Amino acid sequence: MSTEGVDDSRRRFLLATSTVVGGAGVVALAWPFLDSLSPSAKALAEGAPVSVDISKVEKGQQITVFWRKQPVWVLSRTSSMLASLNQVTPRLADPKSEQPQQPDYCKNEYRAIKPEYLVMIGICTHLGCSPKLKAQAPDPAVDPHWLGGYLCPCHGSKYDLSGRVFTGQPAPLNMVVPPNRYANDTLVVIGEDPHENKSKA
Ligand code: FES
Question: At CA 6, angle to CA 10 and CA 143, rounded to 5?
Fold first, then answer.
């Protein structure tokens, strides 16, 4: 655990992680037992889309679910978090998400379908560590101009609250946004594009 554990965002994160509901929670709990599944069931668990109920995710809170063995974050962004995204643009390596690190429908400053919810794979694009949410702003311990974002504990790469990497970091790219769609206002399906399998959710 990093020092992130002592701040409010981390406490909220831990609470959310322990209370994830729906299919995603089932997948996470079932993970240690994958080896005992039949080949077809195992393939489904490893690669199937994951439905996440976000109705209880509070503003400023982040939850983690697993899809294809990768941590996927769902961050509920506050209005001040959203406002910070414009302010950091001059300091970003790829502010317009020109690199193919997200589906086309998330190629915007929010890197999301709904601005208030960031859905993103929580893996640093340098060497694969998992960055920590540093939502507090300002936070001189991270950066003199910090407005909130993610800090990688391995080599210090910094990202904004859309997962866009700052210039001059070891990480070369923005973090990856996976395919995702909304089955309804509070159910996000990770691993499917908006036009896919609407009847399944
Ligand atoms: S793995 Fe994140 S900065 Fe190196």
Answer: 85
